[in-house]
Each structure stands twice: as C-alpha cells, then as structure tokens.
Amino acid sequence: MSPVQTMPPRGYHLSKDELGADILEVAMGPHHPSTHGVFRMDLKLDGETVVDLKPVFGYLHRNHEKIAEDISYPMSMPFTDRLDYLCGMTNNWAYALSAEKLIEIEVPERAEYLRVIVGELTRLVNHCLLIGFFINDLGALGTPLLYALREREKILDLFEVLSGARMMVNYIRFGGVRCDLPEGWLGECQRIVDAFPAFLDEYETLLTENEIIIARAQNVGVVTREEAIDFSLTGPMLRASGVNYDIRKVDRYGIYDRFDFKIPIGGHGDCYDRFMVRMLEMRESVKILKQAIRDLPDGNIMGKAPKIFRPAPGEAYGRIEAPKGELGFYLISDGTPIPYRFKVRPPSFVNLTALRHMCLGHKVADAVIILGSIDIVLGEVDR
Amino acid sequence: MPQRETGPIGDPTAITIETTIGYMGAIDHQGVIRRFPELEWDDFSGSLILSPERVDEVVSWLKEDPAYRLDYLSCVSGVDYLEKEEKTRVRNEAGKMVVKTSLSPEKMEVVYHFYSMEKKTGPFILKQRVHSRENPVVTSLTPHYRGAELMEREVYDLFGIHFTGHPDLRRILMWEAFQHHPMRKDYVPPNDYEYEPTPHGDVLQRARERREELEGQSP
Amino acid sequence: MNNFFDLKLVELGRWIEAFFADFPSLKLVVHLLLCTLPLALSFMGAFAFTTWLERKGLARIQNRPGPNRVGIFGLLQPIADGIKMLIKEDIVPERSDKLFHFLAPIMLMIPALIGVGFLPLGDGLHALPLDSAIIFFFAISSLNTIAVFMAGWSSRNKYSLLGGMRAVAQMISYEIPLVLSAVAVIMIAGSLNAQEVVASQQISSWVGSGNILQEFFGRILGWNVFKPWGFAGFIFFFVAALAEANRSPFDLPEADSEIIAGHLTEYSGFKYAIFFMGEYISAFAIAGIGVTLFLGGWNGPVFSGLPWFVLKLFSLFAVMIWIRGTLPRLRVDQLMGYAWKFLFPLAILNIFLAGFYHFIERQWGTAIAMLAGWILGFGALQLAATALSRLNQSPIMRSKRVYQLVE
C-alpha cells in the first residue's frame, strides 16, 4: 500500500531546480496561529513556492460516531453541538431533520419559524467569524477581526438568553425546539438585525477599496466549476465557483420555500470570490430574518414525538445547508432505541479534498489564506 | 442575469434574477434496472446493491446517462454487519406458527449517496457489498469522483475496508501506527486508557503484563 | 525663544567640561561621554514610552482599552514588561549555532544606536558630526540585514530560515528607493552634512529679518516636504523606511500568522528584549533621518530646536503605529515587485523633478517654480505612478467582478 501521488492540477509541472537546490520540508504544525484549530499541513517548499502539500488531521478525533452507537437517539443531540462548535444550532437542526425522517413527526409552525430564525442567526455568526479571521490571516493584526467579533457577541448573547449557552446550545429537539422565546427576545433580535447592514457596509468597503486585500486574495486558490462539482465541494466554496446549488432552495427543507431570498453566485472561484459570496450571503440572511421575525406565529413549539424514540428498521439521510456547506446525517436503525449506524457527513472534511489542488504552485502565505477561505472547523473535520 | 457588481473600483448594484429549480423528486431507479437487469435493487432501503466488480461500469453509466447525470457524490459511509441470527415467525407446512431461525451472513458495505447538481434530483443510494470481514476489498470511486478521496480514506481507517484504485490509501483520523479499526462492531477498546493502544518500549511491556494479568483473573 | 533649549544644553555641557580643564585627556573622555550617554539613555527611555504608545494606540484602533492596570493609564507597563523579559529563562536550542545565536541581537543593537548618533537633534546638539553623515548612516543601517539573517540562520529552525530569507530580500530591495529619495534632497541641499541639510530648510532671507510673521513662517515653509519633489520623496522615503524597519505592512520576517515569529522564533527573555529594542531604535533612527531630510529637522516656529525634533519624530512614529493597526500584509513577491517595479522608477523620476524645480527656481524665482513644480512635475510623477500600477497589475485584478444573485 505505497502512497502514490494524487492527480496534480491541470497545467502544473514539478520541475527540478537548475541549481539542484533542496526542497525544504516544513510542517505547519498543529500548534500554529493560523491553521484554525489543531490541523497540520506538511509542506514541501521550493524557496517560497509550495511544491507538495499533505493535510494531516485527526488530532481532535473523539469518535463521535462510535459513541452514538451506544446511546439512544436523543442522547446524541448534545454531541452534535460539538461537531462544528461555532454553529451549534444548525448541527442540531440537521440531526433533528434526519431523525424526523426515520419517524414521521410533524413539526408545528412556530417551531419551524424558530428553527429558521436561529439557523439564520447562526449563519450570521459563522460568516462574521470567518470574514474577521480571513483578514486577520492576511496580516491586519486583529483590527477587522475585533470589529467582526463585536457583532458576533451580540448574537451570542441572544443565544445565551434563549438556550442557556452561547455556543453549545442543544436547543432543537426531534419534533420542535426545546423552549419558547423569553420576553423581549424578539425585540432585541429585531434591533440587532436592523443594525446589521450598517456593519456589513462598513466591512464591504474594506474589501472593495483596499488594494492589498485585492492583490492578495484575487486569483489565489482557483477552483473551476467542473472541478468544484468533482471534488464534492458544497456551500459557499461551490457557489463561488459558479455552481447554482443551495440546499435551502433545492431540497426546500423546513419552510424555506416561504421566504424570499436570493443566492449569490461568484464567477472566478478564487479566495476573493468566496469572501464576497459570504458577505452577500449575510445580507440575504438578514432579509430572511426580517421576514421570519415579522411572520412568526403563535402556537406549540413541540410536535407529537414519542416518549421513547424507537424508529422502525430503516435508514434515512437528512441534510441541510449549514454555513460551511452540506451537513448530512446518515442514520441506520434496526428497530431498537439505539442507532445501528450514525454517520456524519461534515462539510469541512469533504471541502478539504480540494486543498492540495488549490495550493500547489502558490506561495506559503497563500496557503494560509486558502485554508482560511475553505472555512474549516476541526471539530467537524475530525468528529 | 441577476448581478451585483463590485471590484477594484466597485460600487455594488443589484439587478435581476434567474430562478433555481427546486427539488425535482426522488430518482426513479427503473432506468438502472432496465439497463442492468442482473443487479439487485433492495426495496427496503431503496438502494442498489453492487459487488465490487460491477462498480466501475455502473457508476460511469450513471454519471453519463442523460436521465440520471449523477455528478455529485455527497456521502461515503461504511457499515459493518456481523453474522446475526434472525428469528421470524412463519407458517410451516402443517399450518402451525413456528419460529424459524436464519443466519444472515456477515458483510461489510460501503454506502454512497449521489445527487445530481444538474437536474437537482434527490438521493440515489448505491451500496457496495462484500461478504468478507477478514479482508474486505472494494473498488474505489476516486477515479470517477475526486471528492471520494478523503471519505474513502476515512472508511479504510475506521473499518479496514481496502479500496483498489485509490491513489493514496492511508489512515486519516487515527495515527499511522495504529493497529486496529475502531468502528468495527467487534472492536475492543483498550482496557486501560493510560497505556497507549499501540505502545512501544517498556510501556508495551507493562501493557502486555497487565493484559495477561487481567485475562488470567477473569474466567 | 529660538534655539533656547539647544543653547542651554550646550552651555550645560561646557560647564561640566570646564571642571576637567586641567586634564585634557580626561576632558576628551568626558566630552565623548556627554555626547553619547545622554543620547543612548534618552532613546532607551523613548523606546520604553513607545512600547506603551504602540500598545495603547493599537488597542484603541481595535476598539479595546489597552494596558490600564499597571499605573495610571498603564504608564508603568513598560517597566513591568522589562522586568518580565529580564527574569525569563533564556532558552537556546540545542543544535543551534551558539555563537551567532548570541551575537545576532547585539549586531542589531549596535548599528541602531550608532545610527541614532547621526541625528541632528538641535542647533549644536549633534553627537557624531561628520561631513558625510547621511551616507554613513545608510551604510550603517544596512548592517541590520546581516543581524536578521544571522538570527534566522543560527536558529536551525525552518521557520526562522524562511523569515531570515524573506528579511534579506525585503531589506535589500527597499534600500534603493530609500537612498534614491534621499539623493534628491542631498542634491538640492548641496551637502551630506546633516546640520547643513537642516539649515538649508530655513528660508534664510526671512529668518534673519526682524519681521515676526516672516520669522514664524520662515521656519516652516522652508521644509522640503512642502516642495513638490520633497513631498513625493517623503512618501517614497516613508514607505521604504517602513520596509527597512520591518514594520507593518512590511513585517513579513515576523509575520506571525504564517511563520510564527520568523527569525525571532527561537529567542526568549533578554535576547528577545534586545531584538525588540534594536528594531524600535532603528525605526527611530530612520524616522529621524526622514525628519532631518524632509521635515526640516529641528526647525520650527517658536521654540526652534530640540522640542520640535522630538515632536516630529514621535508624530512620524505615531503614523507608523497607525499604519500597523490598519493595513494587512503584502506577500513576498508582491512586496519586491512593489519596490523594484514601482518605487524605484518613481524615485529616479523624482530626482529629475528635483533638478527641474531647482533650475526653474534659479531662473524665474520661487513662486513660478512652485507653480511649475507642483503642476507639471508632480503631475508627471502622478501619471507615471498610475501608468506603472496599471502595468504591474494582472488583467484579472483590473476587471470588475460580477456576482449573480439567483432566486
């Protein structure tokens, strides 16, 4: 089983240096300020150019799937918070969706609207963090990062009031949500959502008018349309390459067909496009939030779920458009309250397939930016 | 075309829209059965069961055929089935209800979920089934879908299923020197987590002695 | 009121030396000590103050308070930092080249301190008066490069090596625009002596006269930065000075989001403090030369002399801190492309512009020279800059990007 080199990208040639200079092997190791978690890249450098790249991860592997085969279905819900620890709500929602496919539970209207509200707030939270860290990786020493995190803090305070925890929320249950909105929450949410576009405008001028960011992020890490589909990329990475595929529009899970929103599609497939697509997605999320807050009906927050969740033998694959891509849960049940197979399809893990292809031929500094634009979270990659 | 312009001298302006086609429904499997009548379709789970030799042919047909156009591989999972005794109540020849025990053989499956990005159609499930748990060997789909690369490495790492045709098959989540395959149903976690599962040196010696001691104690 | 402090300080120096009038050799030693020791000590004190200024400034730009625990407004923070650095364990990697690992920080401090000695702080306050002071300064300040590379090489660490290589490439590339922009000034001033360059930035006809208004403006309007070639030269000099001092946006050698700390990775404790100090003091030195060449040195309206020099030096440094908090970093190849393909041709053009201005001033007087200089000369420079930036950008960057919004 000797490791054979994977297929290099089109037009890339590995030529030996005329002076016969050695190739420097560096591990941008697990302890690194910019690798977004315990992630290692074994780089082979020729001067400053990346000649080969091997991503190594598994430092955060907690064997979530094996644990889930010992405990019952609802008991796995808190573990899903820890998958993509920045977006707890959407992980919960994906798992609830798959479980609701195993047993047909009807989710009441109010619960669906609440799920959409917290889901889109989670998308804002995740993209804020990402655009902040992207400019931080470019070297701006924290100033834009702190501005973005300040906005994120406001939304995390909302989550804390609602569910008791900022990130590990454990809020969504099979058939609905756990608890109803406290008083004043909706008004506060409305205020935050109304103030958000001002922050986005300020941030966008940073992008469109700053020559250094444009010079460093454009034409770096390009993925063409066909390559994106071939690499099974999903989420903003796919849409930045020009493919029109957003699971909210395609599957229409939940009540997303009632909202009027658009999907931004980029043209070039480089880091700048991914960045801009995420900025535009934030604007669309704000639109969805305004509509959802306006139309939120009264009613139950929990449908008729059985006391002991014991589905009939069968299997189900439920997926949602998480902020990072397609988050899917594949459940096989054998008639007992404990799942037979619990498989998580993490978006960051699959998006990493394209890392080597994107980085070859670029410089070390670009490798950091490309990794930042894929938007990985090690909790999800390693599970 | 819907547009929002920006750039080095940018001033964002939004213009009109194209409409995404939504969910076009589940994929009808009759086409596959007509083309490959000898293949098995499992109604219970709604999936196509394949043995590793037929995979290349069927998958490339599914990718090209205009009715299917499955260009997006969403999820690759491994599933492990031990040999299991199944008891069912059937009527025997005399008309009495008796309990019949059958032995379902051990097998390992690799489950693939395909979607079509072009036609926006729903999941198509393919299962590669091998009946050997000692040395399971299946065909890799990496030559057809490059996205399968990391996912198949994970299945190899956690289940021990070997993929022929995979360009770089090595462990991904566990470290290189790790010995067993954790997600298998008969995996025994180490007795004492203080000792490394694959230790060396005097730690290995101590681990061996402790294991012998514990095995000597339990009947 | 003019030159008040300078004259007082020179008197003080002479009074102290007068005690040793009977021992000429001792008097020489005391004279040397009086020239250099206050300079070194005050710049180290300025370094301590500047670390506080930088942390507070960056923090306020980033919407957070900054150090405010130790002392009022955190003013005693540099003392706390100093104590921390001194009591830290000095870890030297086992396989490193011990001699060079030890020498590198010292090699950084020495050129920095010598460079500071060349600055004309006031009328008569000049520690190392040399006739070719400016060129000597540039020669000494390029020793920084050797020190940085020594640090990177001797640490036997791949990150440090990367940092060291980047540093050498960057510092060598930016020496040229630095010196070329100074050449324009030296050409017009006619001398390499720092004091003469400063003196040439007073409008001498106005300063001698008794008119208060003329005295006031005579000491401001003569600065080189108000002339077209001086303004452009100042911009080039400042950008190249940022690169020489390894400050953001040119801090690739210590880019801490990519290669952790570059050449500084393997240094801890006191050696790190010396590196830090050496970098800041060399930043002071280059800023000081910038003040001397372009901003009029110690010239100022009322309290001419040392206070103005200090004010200008700190405001330049404050601008450096401001830029650090705002701009992201360039990539190595873009950085060197910027130096060689953009700044270098423009600096040469600037020299021509200076000559053009000088001859028009000779012929037709200052007012017409100003008009012609600003409109024609500066306009030509601006055109050249635009043309070069268009040439250097790739076509993808010049195209507008279109994002579709799909329903």
What secondary-structure arrangement, pairings included, does this model have?
The complex is a heterotrimer of chains A (383), B (219) and C (407).
Chain A: E1 24-28, E2 40-46, E3 49-56, H1 64-68, H2 77-81, H3 88-102, H4 109-137, H5 143-163, E4 172-173, E5 176-177, H6 185-209, H7 211-217, H8 225-230, H9 236-240, H10 247-250, E6 263-265, H11 271-295, E7 314-322, E8 325-333, E9 341-345, H12 347-351, H13 355-359, H14 364-374, H15 378-382
Antiparallel strand pairs in A: 1-2, 2-3, 4-5, 7-8, 8-9
Chain B: E1 4-6, H1 30-35, E2 40-42, E3 47-50, H2 55-64, E4 72-81, E5 84-91, E6 97-104, E7 107-116, E8 121-130, E9 137-139, H3 148-159, E10 162-164, H4 201-217
Parallel strand pairs in B: 3-8, 9-10
Antiparallel strand pairs in B: 2-3, 4-7, 5-6, 7-8
Chain C: H1 4-18, H2 24-61, H3 77-87, H4 98-117, E1 120-122, E2 125-126, H5 133-141, H6 143-154, H7 158-189, H8 194-199, H9 204-208, H10 212-218, H11 228-244, H12 270-294, H13 306-326, H14 332-364, H15 366-392, H16 395-398, E3 401-406
Antiparallel strand pairs in C: 1-2
Helix content of chain B: 10-25%
**The CATH top-level class label of the largest domain in chain A:** Mainly Alpha
The major β-sheet of chain A equals: 3 strands, antiparallel
- Strand fraction of chain A equals 5-15%
Largest sheet of chain B: 5 strands, mixed
CATH architecture classification of the largest domain in chain A: Orthogonal Bundle
Q: Please, what is the oligomeric state?
A: heterotrimer
The coarse silhouette of chain A is: globular
CATH superfamily of the largest domain in chain B: NADH:ubiquinone oxidoreductase Nqo5 subunit
The number of distinct β-strands of chain A equals 9
- N- to C-terminal distance of chain A: 26 Å
Q: Please, what is the CATH homologous superfamily of the largest domain in chain A?
A: Cytochrome-c3 Hydrogenase, chain B
Number of helices of chain B: 4
Q: Summarize model confidence as the mean pLDDT of chain A.
A: 85
Number of individual domains of chain A: 2
The CATH class of the largest domain in chain B turns out to be Alpha Beta
Per DSSP, what share of the residues of chain B sits in E-state strands of 2 or more residues?
25-35%
CATH architecture of the largest domain in chain B: 2-Layer Sandwich
List the domain count of chain B as a whole number: 2
- In N-to-C order, the SSE pattern of chain B is EHEEHEEEEEEHEH
